[in-house]
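Researcher: Quick test of sequence recovery. C-alpha cells follow.
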C-alpha cells in the first residue's frame, strides 16, 4: 500500500490471560456499558449499574469464539513476527493489566 513500516509492535499476552480477560466480559445490550466479573464487576451480578437492564456475554467473548480467534492468530498473524524480526523491526511489549501501563511501554518501544 506504499506505506513504509519502520517498526512493528507486538503486545504480548499469554493465551490463558486473554481467555480469562475475555471470558469475564459482560455488556449491557441496552446502554452498551461494559463490565468484567473479576476486574470491574457490576454492583449486582448480571445487572447493569447504569440502566438496570440484563448483562450478557457477547458472541465474540464466548470461550469457543475466543479460542478460535487465538488459533487464527497463531496460524496466520504470528508468522509475521519472524518476517519483521529478521528485518530488525519487531518490538515486543508485555501487555499489562492496566491500559496506561501498556500504553507507556508501547510508546517507549516505538522510540527504542
Ligand atoms: Zn445498561
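Model:
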Amino acid at each position: 500500500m506504499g506505506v513504509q513500516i519502520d517498526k512493528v509492535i507486538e503486545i504480548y499476552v499469554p493465551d490463558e490471560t486473554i481467555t480469562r480477560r475475555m471470558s469475564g466480559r459482560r455488556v449491557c445490550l441496552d446502554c452498551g456499558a461494559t463490565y468484567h466479573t473479576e476486574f470491574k464487576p457490576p454492583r449486582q451480578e448480571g445487572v447493569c449499574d447504569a440502566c438496570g437492564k440484563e448483562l450478557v456475554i457477547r458472541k465474540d467473548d464466548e470461550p469457543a469464539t475466543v479460542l478460535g480467534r487465538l488459533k487464527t492468530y497463531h496460524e496466520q498473524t504470528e508468522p509475521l513476527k519472524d518476517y519483521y524480526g529478521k528485518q530488525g523491526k519487531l518490538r515486543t511489549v508485555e501487555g499489562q493489566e492496566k491500559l496506561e501501563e501498556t500504553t507507556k511501554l508501547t510508546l517507549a518501544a516505538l522510540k527504542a
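Residues 93 and 106 are 6 Å apart (CA to CA).
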